[in-house]
Amino acid sequence: MAENGLRIVEGRALTPQQKKDLLNRLARVEGQLRGVQKLIALAAEPSDCDAVAQQMAAARKALDRSFVQLLAATMTAQTADAADLNQAKERAAHLAALLEKFA
């Protein structure tokens, strides 16, 4: 079980450690977003918006890093257990399509 109470399922998508690392990173992003919400709620002066923008940019960057971590872990896990070179190439092509679509 992860620290955030989610049950980590065994499977081939990601290793338990990769899942734990990714869930921990996302929990930090979630904390950043809660902080942004508080900053917005407390904003009283125009200069407060600068701090909000800075924290939003940091949260966005952290989420982007989580996305890269997910794809890197997926590449490792899904190509490592490929039956042959063709299957590895198919999986790599699928991951490249994900990058094209979402990055």
TrEMBL record:
Q: Would you identify the family this protein belongs to, as annotated?
A: Belongs to the FrmR/RcnR family.
| Name of the protein in its database record | Metal-sensing transcriptional repressor
Cite a single Pfam family from the UniProt record: Trns_repr_metal
The record ties this protein, via InterPro entries, to: Metal_Tscrpt_repr, Metal_Tscrpt_repr_sf
